[in-house]
Amino acid sequence: MPILVRVVAVLILAAVFGSTGYDASAEDLIAQPPPAPGAPASLDQVISNLRWWLVGLLVGLATLFLTIGGIRYLAADGDPGQVEQAKRAMRNALIGYALAVLAPLLVTILRSLVG
């Protein structure tokens, strides 16, 4: 079980600190007028917002599945069927964390396809 905790911690740290999504310099911010409230500045901003929304959603769902799996594992009381359901929920959580880590890459690929 400690190895699972380490893997989840590394995946969370990679998702949080892997990419900031901020690539504007100070000159870019000064030279351009601010966009209208609520309106995205460009297609890049829309894609960046999509990336962070997707990562947040995936990490939230993965954390929910990990919590449910942990509670099921604790409440299983040795029942093999319940233990298997708990392991399945934890496995799904790890898949969710992996997708959250890969989401910025997928959005970058989408950005290159759109132009």
UniProtKB/TrEMBL annotation:
Listed transmembrane segments: 50-74, 94-114
InterPro entries noted in UniProt: T4SS_pilin
Matches recorded under Pfam families: T4SS_pilin
Keywords assigned by UniProt, alphabetized: Membrane, Transmembrane, Transmembrane helix
Name of protein: TrbC/VIRB2 family protein
Highest classification ranks of the organism: Bacteria, Bacillati, Actinomycetota, Actinomycetes, Pseudonocardiales
